[in-house]
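Example 527, ligand heme C.
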Amino acid sequence: MGVFSRALVLGACVMAPLSLSAGTAAAESLTGEQIVATKCGVCHQKDTSGVIPRIDEGRRTPEGWDMTVVRMMRNNGVDLTPEERTTVVHYLADTRGLSIAETEGYRYILEKRPVAEDVGPTQEFTEMCSRCHSFARVGMQRRTKDDWRRLVNFHLGQFPTAEYQALARDRDWWGIASTDMVDQLAEMFPLGERPMKVDPAPLSGEWRLAGHWPGHGDYEGAMTATPAEGGDLTLSMTLSVAGKAPVTFAGTARVFGAGEWRASLSGDGGSIRQVLARSGDGSGLTGRWFMVDDDVVGAPLAAVKVGSGPALLAVSPAYLKPGETTRITLSGTDLSGDPDLGAGVDAKVVEASAGTVVLDVTAATDAAVGPRDVSLGGASLPGSLVVYDALDRVAVEPAVTFARVGGNGGPIPKVPAQFEAIGYLNGPDGEPGTEDDIRVGAMDAAWRSENFDETAAVMKDATFAGAISAMGLFTPNGAGPNPERVKGTNNTGNLSIVATVADGGETLEGTGQLYVTVQRFVDWPIR
Ligand code: HEC
Ligand code: HEC
C-alpha cells in the first residue's frame, strides 16, 4: 500500500501536499521569518506598532496555517516553492501556534477519527458554523475580535451562497454571523498568549507504545527516535497485535510549536501517518496513527519514554469474569515489583521484563464487579481492569458513521467504515446510557447489515450498498450509476449495522447506523 516516501505531509486538497522533507535549507534559501517579511509582506506590511496585520492577529494548528498559506497561494497568487511553503508553515506554527490544551476536544479532526457529526458548543453555532465544515476547524483558531469579524466577512465574499446553505431562508444568517457570532467567537476564542515552542531534541530516545486497533485488537510496540537534520526525528517503529506477526515502519517526525508531532512512516504495514501531541513534561505522546490512503484504518496510540520512570500504558485484555483465570499482559516502561489488581483478584507473574509483564489473573467468585486499578511497583493505571459477570448490553461503535462509494474506474477510492461491538454494564443505577455505565471493552461479534428503514428497504440498500466483514469492516460498493437499481441510482444507502455477541449463555445484539454516501470530492487537512 503506497510507495515509501520521506515526505511528511499535512495534506491539502487543492495543491500538492505539503512536503516537510526539505531538511536544512540551502544557504541562499529564505528563512520563515524572511518569507513572511518579503513574500507575505507585500500585502501584510508590518504597521507602525510592529504588528503584521492578519498574520499577528491569529493563532492556528500547523494544518490551519497550511490551509491559510495555500489559500494565499491559490486566491492571491503568492508565489512559494514547495520548500518555501514548508518553511513558512513550520515557522508560523512554531511562533503562532496553539497550546496542546487549547486543541483539546477538537484533536479528533486532526487525528482523522471517524465520527458522524461534529456539533458546535451551542445549537446556534452548529447551525451557523458547522454545516459546511467541522466546528473543530473553528475551535482550533484564536483571533482578535476584528480578525473574527474579517473571517466572517471573508466567508460571505468567497461563498455568497453561504446564506442559502446555512438555513438562511429561516433566519438572517448574515445579520447573526456578523454580530452575535463575532461577539461569541471573540469571547470563546480570543487571541490570547502565544505558547512556548518546545525543543524537539528531548523527544529522541526509546518509546514504548500501546493502543487498541479496531477490528484487530490490542497492540503494543516500540519506537526509536533519533535526531535528524533541521530538528526533525528519524523514526523506527514496531507494532505487535497478540498472536500476529509484528509490523515494522520507518520514517520521519517533525515537532511543531508546543508539541504537535506529525510523522510519516512506511513499512510492511503500508504507509502511515502519526498525529500526536506531546504530553506533560515531554515523557508522553498521545494521538492516533492511520493509513495514508485510507485514514479510517488506524488506531489510537499512547506512548511513554523509556527511562522516564515506571509507567503503565495498557492492560490487555482489560476484562475478566469472577471465577475465571485469564492471561493478561501489562505494557509500560521500567516495570518491576509485585502486581496489585485489588481485592479478590489474584495475579501470578508468568514472565516479566521492563516493558512487558505477563500475568495469570484469577478473579474470585465473589470479586467485586466493576472497574479497578492495576498497579505494579511504582506504576498504576486507574480503572484499567473490569470484572464483570454478565454484560447488560452491547453498543456498536461508532454509533453513526459514513462510508463512501468509490473506485470502479474513478479517481477516488472507496472509504470503508470500521465497527466494534463494545460490551457495557448499566452500572449501579441499572439504567442504560447514564453516567455510571461501565464500558467493559471490545467483544468478538458476528456482523450483519440491514436496511435502516422502509425507504432503504424499497431501494434494497442492504443488497447494493456494500458488505461487512467478520472483523466489522464495511466495504462499500463501486462508484457511479448502477443500472440494476431504481432509476439507475448509485450504490448509496442507509443501513443498520448489527453486532451479535455471545456472553455466557446469553446472546446480545447492538445496532449502529451507517450512511453509505458519495465520494468526498474536496478534502481538507481540517475537514
Ligand atoms: C497578494 C496579496 C497577499 C499576499 C502576498 C498574502 N496575502 Fe494573506 N491575505 C490577503 C487577502 C486579500 C486576505 C483576506 C482574504 C482571505 O482571508 O483569504 C488575506 C488574509 C490573510 C490571513 C487571514 C486569514 C483568515 O483566515 O482570516 C492570514 C493569516 C494571511 N493572509 C497570511 C498570509 C501569509 C502567511 C502570507 C505569505 C505566505 C500571505 N498572507 C500573503 C492577501 C495576501
Ligand atoms: C457555506 C459554507 C460555510 C459556512 C456556513 C461556514 N464556513 Fe467556514 N469555511 C468554509 C470553507 C469552504 C472554508 C475554506 C476556505 C478556503 O480556504 O478557501 C472555510 C474556512 C473556515 C476557517 C479556516 C480559515 C482558514 O484560514 O483557512 C474558519 C476558522 C472558519 N471557516 C470559520 C467559520 C465560522 C466561524 C463560521 C460561522 C460563522 C463558518 N466558518 C461558516 C465554508 C463555510
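Summary: The longest helix spans residues 173-188.
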